[in-house]
Amino acid sequence: MIALTNCKLFYRGDFTADKAVLIQDGIIEDVLQKDSLPKNAKTIDCSGNYAAPGLIDLQIYGAGGCLFSNEPNAAALKTIADAIAAGGTTGFLITLATNTLEVFRKAIRTVKQNPHPALMGLHLEGPYINPIKRGAHLLNCIKKPALHEVQSLLDEAEGTIKMITLAPELTAPDIIELLLKNNVAVSAGHSNASYSEAMKGFENGIRATTHLFNAMSPLHHRDTGLPGATFQSDAYASIIADGIHVDYQTLSISKKLMGERLFLISDAVEEALEGAYVHVRRADCFTLPDGTLSGSQLTLLKAVKNCVQKADVPLREALNMASLYPARVMRETHIGVIEKGAKANLILFDEDLRLKEVYLEGVSVNHALS
User: Fold this and answer.
1) Which one of 32, 56, 118, 208 is at 20 to 30 Å from 332 when CA atoms are compared?
2) Average of pLDDT values for 237-263?
3) What domains appear along the chain, each with residue ranges and CATH number?
4) How do the residues of the chain divide into helix, strand and coil, expressed in percent and rounded to 5?
5) Of 132, 44, 119, nearest to 80 (Cα)?
6) Residues annotated as part of the active site
7) Which residues pair with 11 in a beta bridge?
8) Given this model, what pLDDT does residue 309 score?
């Protein structure tokens, strides 16, 4: 049993300096007053740093030098998961952009056979998207969803597909219903939907919008498209807070309109100079060889920092956007919070939001950062 003490603890929506977190067997045993700790608890002094829930990234393609779609194998997945966790993201969906069914099935098998405490499952971004808004996706692999094909993927996945991004204007209600019955969070993205088409998708059970404003119908004054429908609905939306995918003023406006429904993703890729997806490293992002924006260089903690420093989002809200709110999207109650019975996934960081330590199910995974 360990107790994290001497920290500014982000607890139930605010910061407190008079509580400690008691951890046993990978679970938060309790959150107590500092002077109420059991005598047998091993005390860890957090040196006055902030302590917050481990971050949750619902859209990340690679880390540690590996891009999962190019290397959908066990070794790459472990490298990616360990690197993501060491960076403060203790829960993530490994994501695949539009690809062949062969690649999807290989990735499914790899995820099924190689659990990791930070890995929540798969996010398939495509192939059921609108080619008009494909962005960096492979045109020759984009298709309309067919019920038998979706069912086949779900059967093979056996619950490992946790989220799918699709174009609502091209997806029949029975496809959405099938996905929902299999506990897949459906998100609208890479879509040219009109306002009415997008609203119909939300009414049919689509829960979120993928990377708000990017690769979708624009917010036009005569038809507000998918962004307008997202604002007017009860759906959540992810956003990439790097100042490149969207301007920081767009981030600020979206936050004011959506409140607790807006959450952060990294959309991070790794450099790949061969394979189906070629990502070229630029100064502050990744692009295809032709210059098309193809991914970010963000960590989720950097996205939190950008929200605070560039978009006037209070730290407590920026942290929620990277932990509590994505957990809500996935209907998870044991992550994204520091509460009795939750997983002991926590991060420590200083006043400048520099990562100091990471605890994944109560185990320190980040000794090297200072």
Assistant:
1) 32
2) 98
3) 2-52+337-364 (2.30.40.10), 55-329 (3.20.20.140)
4) 30, 30, 40
5) 119
6) 267
7) 14
8) 98
Label residue 369 by pLDDT band (50, 70, 90): very low
Q: What would the two tokens of residue 323 be?
A: 């932990």
pLDDT grade for 157, boundaries at 50, 70 and 90? very high
Q: Given this model, what pLDDT does residue 367 score? A: 52
Token pair, residue 49, equals 């740093």
Buried b (16+ CB within 10 A) or exposed e, 328-362: bbbebeebbbbeeebbbbbbbbeeebebbbbbbbb
CB atoms closer than 10 angstroms to residue 251:
27
Shortest CA distance to 201 belongs to which of 157, 232, 222?
232
Taking alpha carbons only, the member of 303, 321, 210, 209 closest to residue 255 is 321
10 Å CB burial of residue 223 (0-12, 13-18, 19+) is middle
pLDDT tens digits for 319-364?
A: 999 999 999 999 999 999 999 999 999 999 999 999 999 999 999 9
Residues paired with 93 in a beta bridge: 121
